[in-house]
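Risk register update: the risk of archive-format incompatibility is retired. Evidence:
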Amino acid sequence: MNAARQFAIALAIPASGNIFGNAFFSLATGEVGYLLWTLAYDGLVLVGLNILLARQFLFRRVARLIAGEDSDANRRALERLPLGSALWAAGFYILFFPLGFYFSPLAGSYGGDLNLPVDYIYFIALILASVAGYLVYFMLNGLVTRLKLQLFHGRGIILPGGGGRLRRRMIVAIGFIAIMPYLLLGAEFLWFVRYRDGGGLDLPFESAIIMDMAVGLFLICVVLTFLPLSLTRPIEILAAAVERVARGDLTVRAPVTSNDEIGGLTTRFNEMVDGLNERQAIRETFGKYVPEAVAEQLIRDPGVLAGEERIATIMFTDIQGFTGISEMLSPAETIALLNDYFEVVLEPIRAEGGTVNAFIGDSVFASFNVPVPHDDHAARAIRAGLAIERALEGKRFGPGDDIRLTTRIGINTGTVAAGAVGGGDRLGYTIIGDSVNVASRLEGLAKEMGGPILVSDTTRRVAGDAFRFEQLGKVAIRGRAREIMVWRVQS
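Archived output:
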């Protein structure tokens, strides 16, 4: 069903309530012919003329917006459609409903012989105007919600929310239904009684009460059909969007379908998702230039990286004979080769929870247990080293895919200091300490001692019995007064 037809139905439904009440009234008073007049007058004026004029003055710009003519004026027309149409419907009934009584004698016997007093007629007109405005407002709220969804999914248009008050709408929605039956019954007891029994209103009191109850029940059924759609649909739409974000989907946007606090909340939700996307983009970009784990902690809590001491396992890798290899390649080919090589080396380190702290020429400086803690950090480092060697065995590099690379790896476990160092607006995350120097020296010794993976005695002990080691003896390390025991990891 298109929007114009739904708009017309919303304006026509109050007339159906009037016809329902008049049918009961006609049967109860014996003025059966009056029902035929009601059908004709309501159909031509309260439905036909009403819809014709309302579509011209209220729906024309909305139709243009649906057709693709996006402008601020057309958007405002859509936002104002429920309230504007409600005021229109109420005014239309106050103006034209009494005319139906005045013109009814023109229909002869079909117009009925009612001779009702003016105040009674206008009281009924006021009641019908209130009902019409109430029903049209909440029905068109549902229509506007559907149109906003259509514009959002079809053209990506999100209209701004806020401005209205949900509490006020709830008070009107509930208060109207609560007060209307009492108002009708009060009028029967306190006012209409003077017109009974020869006073121009030949309607028994019991029939009038039954009629009021029937009309009230009709209104309640209509309201229960459309009111939940108007009030709860925007909440359901927002809840669905929140659920998608909770599952990790940051591409979601929620259409703003109500002009109240829920609409404002939906707008803030979209801004929050934009902020999460921006944060994710910063994290991803930041993670390309500093260790990913460091970037995560800096975003979550910058104070964590102020400086700390921790037992960690340090790994250094280096390409054997890289100087000679680079001499055979152009600078661009050398960079391409290194990038391909680093992709192979980094994957096992990341898989074991290690953090790549720096690239030093053709070397990789990685750490385990800092900044991301792992109790089995020594074992993780050794597993990563073995995985690197296996990954490089059948791999070829260079422009002709004919260069085989051999990697030397040194691993040491000990106390390190980690934190952000630098000055001014230039900071870098650094891990320093004697344990880092020992790991670097072990990587250099791997060439002399037949590597490929050398570890310190501390790393061997902390790693446990899951690996096989070959003892190479005590070795003097440049920069240290005491020798250290060196072990080769056997694959």
